[in-house]
């Protein structure tokens, strides 16, 4: 079975739950007292997708402003970027839009963009309507899911949707995951959050 290495980076404001999403995906656990990321952290997980193995090389970047200049090191050469916002913080959704602009200007041309509205377990505190975020994601042809790292909602689905958008390796092409095109729309298979 072919193995493809897919570099993925997580971007977004501090405290939106980037590390928690990665931790939930890789270790299937949640730490309520997780520390802010310093610089970036790296984890991997390999999953089977159709007749390939996708090894996700996951760079979780720090959301604090003082680390922002480091981000290009992590999104450069990435097959996909997961931009995370917190559904209870409108400001984090505005930050997400800035990341989309930056990726469009300086990121890999065919990077797959996934938008994750995290903390969807906190419905009572919602500030960002799901429809607004979905409409925005559709307008930029991005994957969209609302997630809860805490309650393990839609975490695997984000990565499955990324796998779906990675074109099958061309016969003469490499398997490094470096050349990608935006493909079909996200499928309807994921769960609605909460
Ligand atoms: N209720 C709820 N809390 C969450 C969820 N995901 C993360 N948190 C909490 O949000 C806080 C920040 O989570 P982190 O994963 O450290 O956030 P981050 O985006 O990686 O932050 P930086 O590393 O500073 O960029 C922690 O207290 C988490 O326990 C979630 O899905 N629901």
From TrEMBL:
Its main location: membrane. InterPro entries: P-loop_NTPase, Small_GTP-bd, Small_GTPase. SUPFAM superfamilies: P-loop containing nucleoside triphosphate hydrolases. It is a lipid-anchor. GO terms for molecular function: GTP binding; GTPase activity. GO terms for cellular component: early endosome; phagocytic vesicle membrane. Gene3D superfamilies: P-loop containing nucleotide triphosphate hydrolases. The keyword Lipoprotein applies. Pfam families: Ras. It is found in: Cytoplasmic vesicle, Phagosome membrane; Early endosome. Belongs to the small GTPase superfamily. Rab family. PANTHER family: PTHR47978. This is RAB22A, member RAS oncogene family. It comes from Labrus bergylta (ballan wrasse).
